[in-house]
Design a protein that fits this description.
The complex is a heterodimer. Chain A is mostly helical. Chain A has eight helices and no strands. Chain A is extended. Classes of the chains: A mainly alpha, B alpha/beta.
């Protein structure tokens, strides 16, 4: 029963949703949107589980004084502070339990929650994102080392695309006559991005689309049950 | 009676030709009846501007669109209820904003039972579904099916074994999207097999997630996997835990885990965005054996350069079936291959037809 009921629900909902893709008439047309709302409601409740998990894992690490346990206290304190500020004075245009906190807003320029969001959270987020530039450099270095024919091709096309997107690239081939315009670096770069790259990406997307159809059918027909914890 | 009909026909024809403005409103096809298609032609009176209004239930007219073009179309989808007749009014203005002419007409919308715009999608979906079901039954009857080797999946046992030997944990990341994404589900189906192997080898498994729904599902999957491996005592409920919903907050958390715990094997299986390379490069620097899989074409190059094995697109979805060795599941993979063959044939024919200047196949396949 523990397996059969979820399988039955999956089968019924899956078939109805497939049908609703082709039938715009009520009630089918609205089903997809309705189920998305259901999903949002369920995930709204599930957030509580996530917060509980976060608390439990961090408290246990602090309790047993695991290595670097001090960092976990920062997580918990940050969490409590943000939630408290949000509850008390609200965020954005929404009021909190103590209203909008005009006195604080006039002093620091923002509501306390928004102040921390703009001045700490966003900067931390930008810091993490900016790491990407360094990681791209190190990954590109490894990828561009010419060892095989494929990596050499990658190296050549990457250099062409990078140069084509810079003013230096335009300068290098800017002197070419009109009849050799197709050799102009920005043109080559555009060609590589428009044709070979797009073709490759679309091939992957077609394969992935077929994979999604196959996986969905396996799940709807109950052949694939791993997501339920079974075979 | 016949004379009356002829009289009505002539009167109607005269009425049509006497109009200088054409205002045509009809049901927008292939939808749930929530829109009406409006088209107008004021070229005969050379109006500089037109305003189209709709009568509300209070008898007032509210403007729904305006245009300076003499001809045009507009879809009115604001609070249209199927089966109710709506009155529309078109007012044409001259250069001095004086009213030149007003035309009124009525129309009603209908909900359709089949979206004809998606007929090509239906045909392809049916073809692929039938082929998948056919191969599943074919596999059930004992027919031997060849499935090509996927190195990323073959190496899973090796990764778990390595982690066990080194006494270091295995890190599993099921992507950064929620359970409504198929890539997340595909990642989670692999988690079950990985967790079972980890339980058998007695390796520590760490599964940080960034969605609460994924948390509860992943917990259940890992728990069941340990039970199936006969090691329910080894299951640690805190091995699957929630970090944050925020993309880069999650990345910071996972990177911290990689740096502190130094997992011997990392698995990144699911949907990823800009975080893919940050995670994979941190994992690479820690010396872990890394397996990644995603259907995000823009993230695949990052995984390819930073990971030891990468499951590209469809391979991620095929992984669970591939590892199960279950004929039913393998049959569905053959069905997918048949789908690919159909696409190759259609694409080739489409290219030839387009080069020849015949566009009917492109028009037929285009979803409107």
């Amino acid at each position: 029963m523990k397996r059969k009921i979820p399988l039955l629900i999956t089968f019924t909902v899956g078939i109805i949703l497939i049908i609703s893709e082709f039938i715009p008439h009520k009630p089918f047309g609205q089903l997809s949107g309705e189920l998305e709302i259901w999903f949002l409601i369920i995930s709204g409740f599930a957030i509580l589980l996530g917060q509980l998990s976060l608390f439990k894992v961090n408290i246990l690490k602090i309790k047993y004084k695991q290595r670097d346990w001090q960092f976990y206290t920062i997580t918990l304190i940050s969490f409590i502070v943000m939630v408290t500020f949000g509850f008390l004075w609200g965020t954005g245009k929404s009021a909190g339990m103590l209203g909008h906190g005009e006195i604080i807003s006039n002093t620091i320029g923002y509501k306390p929650f928004d102040y921390l969001f703009h001045n700490i959270y966003q900067h931390l987020q930008a810091t993490m994102f900016s790491l990407l530039a360094f990681f791209i450099a190190s990954a590109a270095y490894r990828a561009f080392i010419g060892r095989t024919v494929e990596s050499n091709l990658l190296l050549v096309s990457a250099v062409l695309v990078m140069l084509g997107n810079t003013t230096f690239g335009s300068l290098l081939t800017g002197w070419l006559p009109e009849s050799l315009n197709f050799l102009h670096l920005p043109k080559i770069s555009e060609f590589i991005m428009t044709f070979p790259t797009t073709a490759g990406q679309r091939a992957i997307m077609i394969g992935a689309g077929l994979g999604i159809i196959g996986s969905s059918l396996r799940i709807i027909l109950g052949i694939e049950r791993s997501y339920l914890g079974g075979e | 009676m016949k004379k009356l009909l002829i009289f009505l026909f002539i009167s109607y024809t005269c009425f049509l030709f006497s109009q200088e403005i054409l205002l045509n409103i009809k049901d927008k096809p292939n939808n749930d009846g929530s829109a009406l298609s409006i088209s107008w032609d004021t070229s005969q009176i050379e109006a500089s501007k037109i305003i189209i209004e709709r009568e509300t239930s209070d008898g007032e007219f509210i403007a729904i669109t305006s245009s300076e073009e003499s001809t045009g179309t507009f879809d009115d989808g604001s609070n249209i209820i199927p089966g109710i007749r709506y009155i529309y009014r078109l007012t044409a203005f001259d250069n001095n904003d004086n009213i030149m002419q007003i035309v009124m007409t009525t129309s009603e919308s209908y909900a359709q039972w089949f979206n004809k715009d998606k007929i090509s999608l239906l045909i392809f979906a049916l073809l692929i579904t039938i082929s998948i079901v056919y191969y599943i039954f074919s596999a059930r009857s004992g027919k031997d099916l060849y499935i090509r080797k996927i190195s990323g999946l073959e190496s899973m046992d090796e990764s778990v074994g390595r982690a066990t030997e080194m006494g270091r944990p295995i890190l599993f990341i099921p992507g950064t999207l929620d359970l409504d994404d198929m890539q997340t589900i595909a990642g989670l189906t692999l988690l079950r097999r990985l967790a079972q192997k980890a339980a058998e080898y007695d390796a520590k498994l760490i599964v940080p997630v960034c969605r609460s729904m994924v948390l509860s599902t992943a917990k259940e999957i890992v728990k069941e996997a340990y039970m199936k491996a006969g090691r329910p005592d080894a299951y640690d409920p805190d091995s699957v835990f929630y970090l944050t919903d925020d993309q880069f907050g999650y990345v910071a958390g996972v990177d911290g885990i990689i740096v502190r715990e130094k997992p011997a094997a990392n698995f990144f299986l699911g949907a990823f965005y800009a975080e893919s390379l940050i995670l994979a490069e941190t994992g690479f620097s820690s010396g872990a054996i890394q397996t990644a899989g995603t259907a995000m074409p823009s993230q695949l190059p990052f995984f390819v350069v930073a990971c030891d094995y990468t499951l590209i697109g469809e391979e991620l979805f095929a992984a669970s079936a591939y590892l199960s060795k279950d004929p039913h599941q393998l049959g569905s993979l053959k069905g997918q291959d048949f789908g690919k063959a159909i696409f190759i044939v259609v694409l080739t024919i489409g290219i030839i037809l387009e080069i020849s200047g015949v566009h009917f196949l492109k028009d037929f396949l285009a979803l409107h």
